[in-house]
Design brief:
12% strand, two-stranded antiparallel sheet
C-alpha cells in the first residue's frame, strides 16, 4: 500500500503573517472555500463599480464551492485571475469583502467562521458565507442577461 505524501508543514497562526511571508501551502490554505471569487462580475464602465452576480464560472462546483479544474483552470478559463502575493495588489478590489486574501491584504483579521479559525471546513457554509446552493452556471445564462442576476448584498 502506497503511503500518501505528507502535508506541507504550516506555521501556527500563519494567517496573521503578512501575505508576502506565506509559503505556497499557507497561501493556498488561506482560501476559505466560499466560491465567491468564482462568481462572474460586471463592472460599470463609467464608475468602475463592481457588481457580483449569481452567475458562476463554468468550473465552479456549486456543492463544494471549489474549482473543478483548479490546477488547469487557466487552460479552460484564460481570464481567470491568478491570485498570488505579487498580484493581489492589482486584484484585491475584485475579491469579495469577506475574502481572507482581501482581509489580510487590508490588514484585517479573519472572520470567526473562517475554517482556519473555527477548525471546521464546513463553517463557511454553516455561516451562510459561501455560494453553496444558489448559483447558476454561466452556460445557462447569456452574458447580456447577467445584469438580471446581480447580487445586492454579498
Amino acid at each position: 500500500m502506497a503511503s500518501r505524501p505528507a502535508k506541507p508543514a504550516m506555521r501556527p497562526e500563519f494567517w496573521t503573517l503578512p501575505l508576502a511571508r506565506l509559503t505556497p501551502a499557507e497561501w493556498e490554505a488561506l482560501c476559505d472555500g466560499c466560491g465567491k471569487c468564482c462568481l462572474n462580475k460586471l463592472e460599470d464602465a463609467d464608475t468602475g463599480e463592481l457588481y457580483f452576480t449569481r452567475v458562476a464560472c463554468r468550473l465552479l462546483d456549486g456543492e463544494t464551492c471549489r474549482c473543478g479544474q483548479y490546477e488547469n483552470r487557466r487552460k479552460f478559463v484564460p481570464e481567470c485571475v491568478f491570485l498570488t502575493p505579487k498580484t493581489i495588489e492589482n486584484v484585491a478590489y475584485w475579491l469579495p469583502s469577506t475574502c481572507a486574501y482581501r482581509l489580510r491584504y487590508d490588514g484585517l483579521e479573519l472572520a470567526d467562521w473562517h475554517p482556519l479559525i473555527s477548525g471546521d471546513p464546513e463553517s463557511v457554509h454553516k455561516a451562510g458565507q459561501s455560494v453553496r446552493g444558489w448559483t447558476v452556471p454561466e452556460f445557462e445564462v447569456p452574458e447580456e442577461d447577467w445584469e438580471d442576476h446581480i447580487i445586492e448584498d454579498l
